[in-house]
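Query structure, 184 tokens:
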């Protein structure tokens, strides 16, 4: 597997550029695609929720669940402890750390989506939150299943599996929440 060495200062330096491109896209595409500004707000909430889920995940993955392999990028670049465990044990622990991060991040995500992104009121709040978690759970289980399978069968790096899980969940969640749970 090719080692991608991107240092944190370069990533941080790129954030203003990414923000400027996003603002430009909202202004230009927002006039042509009515749901695009909402998508950008959703993405912003998603980034925050993903950050929370990732922090919880890496905290657990580097302390009590130890599911980062020795060659994992998080081990190499952030000096987190790696574990010498089998891929099947690592996949199980990956799923457990993901589950805890999922619950915490989704509570935050539901509140922020309700306040800033979508129009609540299609369902009572307790039905809405149940559907919100159900959609998130469905998307996460599908993505988690694929990621865990790739870890078991191909020894995929835990960090790549996490990125894949987040990307698949993100797009499934947006469209299901927009058209099924909230009032647009």
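Result returned for the query:
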């Amino acid at each position: 597997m090719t080692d991608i060495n991107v240092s944190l200062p370069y990533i941080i330096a790129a954030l203003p550029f990414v923000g400027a491109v996003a603002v430009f896209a909202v202004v230009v595409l927002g006039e042509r695609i009515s749901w695009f500004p909402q998508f950008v707000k959703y993405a912003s909430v998603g980034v925050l929720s993903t950050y929370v889920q990732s922090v919880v995940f890496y905290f657990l993955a580097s302390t009590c669940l130890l599911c980062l392999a020795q060659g994992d990028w998080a081990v190499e670049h952030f000096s987190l402890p790696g574990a010498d465990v089998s891929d099947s044990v690592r996949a199980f622990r990956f799923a457990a750390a993901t589950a805890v991060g999922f619950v915490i991040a989704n509570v935050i995500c539901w509140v922020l989506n309700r306040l800033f992104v979508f129009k609540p009121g299609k369902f009572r709040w307790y039905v809405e939150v149940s559907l919100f978690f159900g959609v998130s759970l469905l998307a996460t289980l599908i993505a988690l299943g694929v990621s865990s399978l790739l870890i078991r069968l191909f020894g995929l790096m835990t960090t790549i599996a996490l990125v894949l899980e987040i990307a698949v969940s993100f797009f499934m969640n947006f469209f299901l929440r927009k058209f099924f749970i909230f009032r647009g």
